[in-house]
Write a structure and sequence with these properties.
6 helices, globular, 179 residues, single chain
């Protein structure tokens, strides 16, 4: 089963893959200057089918939530990431070297309907892709306005959370090698 995470950013009312944003940055820069309000989505692609592409969120906060929860999931805790602009959640249930991943309509405490039924994803795949999504977003910010790393709280939070997520993943990898 193919599992892939993609970063999409809303520009001019259209959801665009981050790589297209980077390749057209000069034309899109003005629409991305106010990074805290820039919306986007972490799209989950399973066997070629995209889920969540139509659910736009403040993308800095969403990426921060994903990578912040990653540290806890690596540590063995069950976690959810609730979307702010819709009643949808991502759920992560650690199962050893895998994570039971799902995406559903509902709240953190009540599942109404699964968009993606619970599926096992290798922890390595989830962790490396979540980290890469955040790195990609920070790359866009760096090219749009590097001053945001000093002036914007959401941007600062993402940098800190990404660093913590990377450290948690590195510790997990070291412990796995010792087993």
């Amino acid at each position: 089963m193919g599992f892939q995470l993609q970063l999409k950013i809303e520009v001019g009312g259209e959801i665009v893959d981050y790589s297209k944003v980077l390749s057209n940055l000069d034309a899109l820069r003005e629409q991305l200057v106010d990074s805290p309000t820039v919306k986007g989505m972490i799209v989950v692609k399973v066997d070629g089918v995209e889920y969540g592409a139509d659910l736009s969120e403040p993308v800095l906060r969403l990426a921060d939530q994903w990578v912040r929860k990653l540290s806890w999931v690596i540590g063995g805790d069950t976690e959810t990431v609730a979307l702010r602009n819709s009643e949808h959640c991502f759920a992560f249930v650690p199962t050893g070297d895998s994570v039971e991943f799902s995406f559903f309509a509902g709240t953190e405490s009540e599942i109404e309907d699964y968009v993606i039924e619970p599926m096992n994803v290798r922890l390595e795949s989830l962790a490396t892709q979540a980290v890469k999504i955040c790195e990609n977003l920070l790359e866009v910010i760096q090219k749009v306005d590097p001053n945001l790393f000093e002036s914007d709280e959401d941007c600062k939070d993402l940098v800190v959370s990404l660093d913590e997520g990377k450290k948690a993943w590195h510790r997990y990898q070291l412990q796995s090698k010792r087993r």
